[in-house]
Amino acid sequence: MASEQEENVTFVQHTESHPCLYDITSSNYTRQDIKEKAWNDISKKTNNSNIPREPRSP
Question: What top-level branch of life does the organism fall under (predicted)?
Answer without folding.
Answer: Eukaryota
